[in-house]
Design goal:
alpha/beta, 364 residues, cytoplasm, single chain, 14 helices
Length: 364
């Protein structure tokens, strides 16, 4: 990247009117127009056109827009490695009553979706939707597979069982080589459930597909009219920021790197989807609330505690198996072990991390 002095061309930044609970923003003069600023280092020119007001970044959902905290759920297994549907009801109650989480993202990476059969994913999705009815605001079912036909089958099924939306990850064995190829795949999945809100699930560290999420969003609504946003589980905050800047107001931009939540809120995230919100949900909600109120010191303090916990866990080899065993320990639920090739975590390791958690956080 060149120095600031080398920026000779202009660029455009859209500025929207926002009704915010962030005190620092409320001190500014209200903006009543959509403003396009043509900027270089020392020059600002302004052009305006009328625009209606928007809601705050973490305000209640409008027109069922997905906002706030979303738990990426673990898949309950028996000790014999079979899916355990009986644990889903208590799991939902725990999330709502103990963690204050009101939306869930099921059968995703945390849910070990790629280690499940299509039949298992159907059974799980149906049970999650059935038990969440009247308790959770939204259930988003991840339907991405290596096979287009499997993804389409799961998308049709999600529509039939009353899911609130579907999400699709990029195939990662035969990888799409361009943004256009991936958009076309996403379109083919969405086309079999055209009335169901559709989310692109961006997680390049897992898929190995290093296409910028912003490039995927380019004119995506023309191919996918049901498109409603992106679950951005990458650490590239420049790409994330460009997604926020580009997205339409009725879309949701949800961040998925829990240890960087505060940074994403500053960039304009509508909410967050993550595995640690299964047991850190109430604390992450406090972080969001503090940010809303302009209490950056409190928000940063909570974020630093989350980072300290995860940094400590990573030194012990934190992975999905460890994370799931930690959830078992902290929640009291019986979610079972992970499925191979993910190895079960030694109990001593989970107990050590749980002790660290309790040294940093009070009970919710």
């Amino acid at each position: 990247m060149g120095s600031i002095g080398s920026w000779s061309r202009h660029f455009s930044v859209p500025v929207l009117k926002v009704t915010s609970t962030f005190p620092l923003l409320n001190q500014l003069k209200p903006v009543t127009h959509l403003s396009t600023y043509k900027l270089d280092v020392f020059d600002v020119k302004k052009e305006t056109q009328p625009l209606g007001s928007l809601t705050s970044v973490m305000a209640p959902a409008v027109n069922n827009k997905l906002t706030g905290l979303v738990a990426a759920t673990f898949t309950p297994f028996t000790t014999q490695g079979e899916i355990n549907l009986s644990e889903i009801g208590p799991y939902i109650d725990y999330l709502k009553e103990k963690q204050g989480v009101n939306s869930i993202f099921v059968n995703g990476t945390t849910g070990e979706s790629m280690s499940l059969s299509v039949a298992e994913r159907r059974d799980l999705a149906e049970e999650w939707c059935r038990k969440a009815k009247g308790k959770m605001d939204q259930v988003i079912v991840h339907v991405g597979c290596m096979s287009l036909k499997d993804s389409q089958e799961l998308a049709r099924h999600a529509a039939q069982i009353g899911a609130d939306g579907i999400a699709v990850i990029s195939p990662s064995f035969f990888k799409p080589s361009t943004a256009d190829a991936l958009r076309t795949f996403l379109h083919e999945v969405s086309s079999v459930a055209p009335n169901l809100p559709f989310f692109y699930y961006h997680i390049p560290s897992v898929t190995g597909v290093n296409i910028l999420a912003r490039d995927i969003l380019e004119d995506v609504w023309e191919l996918i009219p049901s498109f409603k946003g992106v679950k951005f589980s990458g650490s590239d905050l420049m790409d994330f920021g460009q997604c926020v800047s580009y997205c339409q107001t009725h879309w949701s931009v949800l961040y998925g790197v829990d240890e960087q939540l505060l940074a994403a809120l500053v960039m304009g995230a509508d909410g967050a989807v993550g595995s640690t919100y299964n047991y850190l949900g109430c604390h992450a909600s406090e972080l969001m609330s503090a940010f809303e109120k302009g209490n950056i010191v409190q928000a940063r303090t909570i974020q630093f505690k989350m980072q300290e916990l995860l940094s400590y866990a990573k030194k012990l080899g934190f992975d999905l198996g460890v994370n799931k065993q930690l959830m078992n320990e902290l929640s009291g639920l019986c979610l079972g072990p992970p499925r191979l090739p993910v190895m079960q975590c030694p109990m001593s390791e989970a107990l050590t991390i749980a002790k660290k958690y309790r040294s940093l956080f009070t009970e919710c």
